Each structure stands twice: as C-alpha cells, then as structure tokens.
Amino acid sequence: MWGCQRVKHHTIIWCMSNLINTKFGKKVKEIRQKRGMTQEELAEAIKTSYKYIQRIEGKTPPDIRLTTIERIAKSLSIPISQLLKF
After folding, report:
1. How many Cα neighbours within 13 Å face the side chain of 1?
2. 9-83 has which fold?
3. Could you tell me if 20 and 69 are in contact, meaning their C-beta atoms sit under 8 angstroms apart?
4. Could you list the mean pLDDT of each consecutive 10-residue stretch along the chain, which spans 86 residues?
5. What is the pLDDT of residue 1?
6. How far apart are CA 59 and CA 29, in angstroms?
7. Helix (H) / strand (E) containing 45
8. CA distance 63 to 82
C-alpha cells in the first residue's frame, strides 16, 4: 500500500488519508457516471476546473475541503453521507 509498511506515525496518517481520499474519489466517479455527468459538467457545477475533478478521481487525489464535498454532493443531488459510504 504505497510504501506504507514503514511504521512511523506520520507515514501511517498519510497512508490513511490517501486511502480515504482514493475511496472518496472512486465514489465520486461512480455516482457521477451513474448520473450521466462528465467531469467537465461536474466541475462547472461546483465552479472548479475539470483538472481538479480528474485529480479527485485519480490515483493520488488531493486533500478535499468539506465545502468541496458539500458542493459535489449538492451537484450530484445526494446527501453528503452517500459520498462517504465506502
């Protein structure tokens, strides 16, 4: 898991954060595609670039602010909790 075998506190936290962000990105992609939305359409709806949506859904997603999670959920017409079920 991304070289996370080292047992240092900061490495464990980074690995957990990256795993959560990756699962979140997969969930966004799954729901977005079920809704028939493109990355560009979602980006426009939440007032960001499609490159940012690509990063969220990619292999090394960024940390995501709660306000962004809220805007994504609203744009996909789902409760925030649905994005966090993984």
Report:
1. 15
2. 434 Repressor (Amino-terminal Domain) (1.10.260)
3. no
4. 55 80 97 98 97 96 95 98 92
5. 45
6. 12
7. helix 39-45
8. 18
Residues in the chain: 86
Please tell me the number of Cα atoms within 13 Å of 36 on its side-chain side: 0
Written as six digits, the tokens of 74 are: 């609203």
Structure tokens at 17: 């954060």
Q: At what angle do helices 9-34 and 50-57 cross, to 10 degrees?
A: 120
pTM of the entire predicted model: 0.82
DSSP 51: H
| Cα angle: 21, vertex 23, 29; to 5 degrees | 100
Which structure tokens are listed for 32?
A: 């977005």
